[in-house]
Amino acid sequence: MLFCHSQPESYHQHSASYIREALAPFLKNEEARLMAENGAKRTPFQYILCAATSPAVKQQEETLTYLNQGQSYEIRMLNRKLVEYTDISSKCVKSIVRVVFHDRRLQYMEHQQLEGWRWNRPGDRILDIDIPLSVGILEPRSHPLHLNTIEFLWDPVKNASIFIQVNCISTEFTPRKHGGEKGVPFRIQVDTFTTNEHGEYMEHVHSSSCQVKVFKPKGADRKLKTDKEKIDKKAAQDREKYQPSHETTLLKECSPWPDALNLTTTTHSGCSTPSPVYHSSPVPCSFTDGNCSPNQQGELLMPGCSDHLLPSSSPQNTQQWLHRHRFSPFSRLFSSFSGADLLRMSREDLIQICGPADGIRLFNTMKGRCIQPRLTIYMCQQQAGNHPPIKPGGGDIYHALYLEELTLLDLSEKIAMLYSITPQQITHIYRQKPTGIHVLVSDEMVQNFREETSFIISTIRDESTDGYHVVLK
């Protein structure tokens, strides 16, 4: 369904003068300013955020724009190549808009930061689309697991604009030790894709972004006013060191966001992932995508203790190991690390990079530390009368059984493994007391077994069920 208001007719692709006149009201001042800032370089696409830049930014620094929480702001989009020529083969292009951290340190901790925000604001999104105000937008989507990302299609031959709402504020990601700490800056980034030969939006054509700070309602207006008053009080010579404030903000060309391609792929292939740092018929997925089907995910998240990270592991194998052990949010950070590189890092290094929770978990997983069993018991299989037991040391042979769950089911599974049968073949487990009585073993009895208790175990064949009764002495 197309969400649009009244628009001008399609532009004639050979009439450059007509296009310039039609687009003049739309991007008159912005185009001149872009040419002044970028010189002769003309980027394929241009995006303008309709919010004023701060005048308290020095000439050589990146622009900074203040936004109000929950307020709708317009982002205008234009394929600038249409002014000169048209070489976009697909009718529509796909743009992914995301709110990310400007600070590199917070980018490394993005997964934990966004999870914390989700926990404190259940049901809310960091970024929303104001669909009624948007113009020329096709198939707007907001993934339920990617709270800071929206995507949509638009026709580059026509005017298009999307209105976005940022619902988090910059101070939600600061410690606030004194209540007045400055909020962290964000980035609004737009990544645009065209279709490949298979009709999938995977051909990256352009990315641009700008720096913003988000305040509580009306806070951005007050901050902008304060900055203007601060600059006006400076001497004329000092004012020249600062950029003039503009009514709109140009998004400058940048590198594509690393997760943009993965997000585009998963949207069309149907794979889902529980990750917030970013992602409907199931298809096979590889570890390098960081995504998998629900069935595959259950298999990947239950690795055995023998799945150790080795010093000889290549960077590709290390990436697979990180995905298998649920460290996908850090796969981009450790993309060039081999197994030896990771194993050289100390516990403190990993905590500093990944945060306390994931840093400790990554350190323990790398060192191959298995979960300690809750109970260890020893079993000696009773031999038949005509089969003397094997006695390499002159005594009976016992097997250690490690119970992770103090339940009858867990005990049955371990005994079944000892006899190479299925747990379903064990119908009952009894404990024989010194008086000769047989007591039916229950969960409560297993919970009261003492650590390293030893038993002599025997089995009785149950002909009626083709199963076994197990007796512990």
From TrEMBL:
UniProt record similarity statement: Belongs to the grh/CP2 family. CP2 subfamily.
Entry-linked SUPFAM superfamilies: SAM/Pointed domain (SSF47769)
PROSITE patterns: GRH_CP2_DB
Record's subcellular location: Nucleus
Pfam families tied to this protein: CP2, GRHL1_C, SAM_3
GO-annotated molecular function: DNA-binding transcription activator activity, RNA polymerase II-specific; RNA polymerase II cis-regulatory region sequence-specific DNA binding
UniProt domain Grh/CP2 DB: residue ranges: 41-277
Any one Gene Ontology cellular component term annotated for this protein: nucleus
Main localisation: nucleus
UniProt keywords, alphabetically: DNA-binding, Nucleus, Transcription, Transcription regulation
Name by which UniProt lists this protein: Transcription factor CP2-like 1
Domain of life (superkingdom): Eukaryota
